[in-house]
Specification:
The chain is α/β, with parallel strands linked by helices. The chain is 35% helix and 16% strand. The chain contains eight helices and eight strands. The strands form two sheets. It has a six-stranded parallel β-sheet, with helices on both faces. Strands 7-8 form a two-stranded parallel sheet. Helix 1 packs across helix 2 and helix 4 packs parallel to helix 5. It starts with 6 loop residues before the first strand and ends in a 15-residue tail after the last helix. The relative contact order is 0.14. The structure holds NADP nicotinamide-adenine-dinucleotide phosphate. NADP nicotinamide-adenine-dinucleotide phosphate binds next to helix 1 and helix 4.
Length: 226
């Protein structure tokens, strides 16, 4: 697998990455699931294949998955973002797009998931952008989408996805959103707006707790033209 329409998901063994892998597989896109441990990636790919008959999904170590798709989604906890990017950056080629989905939740320092920690670069996405080789674009997306809703294949996800980054790379990631029923891409402009979008996830987590919505509350912008 190394096709133009392939999507790699590093940390695709976890809740959010597996949810995206399932949804992209349902949409007929080849998916390379990455893990630090090959067997975990292979098991996750098998899981997707069992739920989505005919799915083109394979498991690889993270660096190998990176080399197998033009779009690479980072799906590891914020505190492991830098080490994960450093571990794969030699496999990144100019023209590839890295999607940052991480949120600097305060759980990284043992505090609550409804709070954030500061990031020197401004956001997780800008941290990633500071680490990738020249010619690799970083786009921020999917931070406000619930893993539970992604994994519940019988339902639509019902959430807007604010996509931020350089224009052409942003457009390509926006095209991924409607592959998942209920996701709508919203043009989020430059990457620095990830600072705002990442913070919304901490707010959503707090709302989930206060309103007791274990499946996850989503986000909708009103008044956008069709
Ligand atoms: N869960 C949600 O509802 C949700 C919603 C929006 C955004 N997000 C974002 O999506 C990302 C993934 O979230 P998640 O809930 O799926 O996380 P998770 O299940 O806790 O972890 C995802 C994967 O990260 C890898 N990982 C764990 N420790 C690591 C380490 N020390 N170094 C490198 N990789 C490590 C693991 O993969 P291997 O052990 O296979 O390597 C794990 O399966 C996060 O940045 C989160 O902020 C999550």
């Amino acid at each position: 697998m190394s096709r133009d329409d392939s999507i790699a998901i590093l940390g695709g063994t976890g809740d959010q990455g597996l949810g995206l892998a399932l949804r992209f597989a349902v949409a007929g896109r080849p998916v390379a699931i990455g893990s630090r441990v090959l067997e975990r990636a292979v098991t996750a790919a098998k899981n997707v294949g069992e739920q989505v008959p005919g799915a083109e999904v394979e498991g690889f170590e993270n660096a190998e998955a990176t080399a197998r798709a033009p779009i690479v989604i980072l799906s590891v906890p914020f505190e492991h973002t830098a080490s994960t990017v450093k571990g794969i950056r030699e496999r990144l080629e100019p023209g590839q797009i890295v999607v940052s989905m991480g949120v600097p939740l305060a759980t990284a320092v043992g505090d609550a998931a409804s709070r954030m920690v500061g990031v020197w670069q401004g956001s997780c996405a800008e941290l990633v952008a500071s680490l990738v080789p020249k010619g690799v674009q970083v786009v921020s997306a999917f931070q406000n989408v619930s893993a539970h809703r992604l994994q519940s294949l019988e339902g639509a996800v019902d959430c807007d996805v604010v996509v931020s980054g350089a224009a052409e790379a942003r457009r390509r990631v926006m095209e991924l959103c409607p592959l998942v029923p209920g996701l709508r891409a919203v043009d989020g402009g430059p990457l620095a707006n990830a600072r705002i979008v990442e913070g919304l996830t901490a707010l959503l987590i707090g709302l989930n707790i206060r309103y007791k919505v274990s499946a996850g509350i989503g986000l909708r912008f009103t008044g956008l033209p069709e």
